[in-house]
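Lecture 7 notes: from sequence to structure.
We start with the chain below.
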Amino acid sequence: MLNLPVSEIMNDHPIKVKSDVSVRNVAHLLLRSRINGILVVSAADPQKLVGVFTTRNLLHLMGDSLARRRQKMQALHDVGSQPVGNFIKEKLLTLQASDNTAKAVGLMHKKNAVTIPVFDGDKLVGVIGRHDIINIAFA
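Predicted C-alpha cells for the same chain:
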C-alpha cells in the first residue's frame, strides 16, 4: 500500500473554485461535497493553482469572527462575503503523480495537511486527501 503511486489513489477530478468566489459559497461546496479541502485557482487564470482552502481554514476564520466582543454575527457575515483568495496564505504543498503513498502520508503528517494537489510535471492531474489514504490503508 505504501509503495503505490499517488496516481492510483488520488481523485483525478478535483473540485476547484476561482479565488474570487466567496468564503460562504466555498463553505457550502465543502459541506455539500463532503470534502475537507478545495483547490483554489486564480480568477484571472483558471489554470494557475494558488492554494488549497480547507475546513480547518474555515473554522479558523469562524473562530476569529466569533472571538470579537461585539457584532459577532456581523463579523461572521463579513468574512463569508469575502473572496476565498483573501485567505490563501500557506505555502502550497504538492505531490507528483509518481510519488508513492508513503511520501503523501509523511507530508500530511509533517505539515498537518488534509488535501494535497497532485501534478504530473507542471500539469495539475488530481488531488489526494487524508480520506483517500485512510481508505486504501484499511480497505
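Points to note: Residues 65 and 74 are 8 Å apart (CA to CA). The helical segments are 23-33, 55-66, 72-81, 101-111, 130-137.
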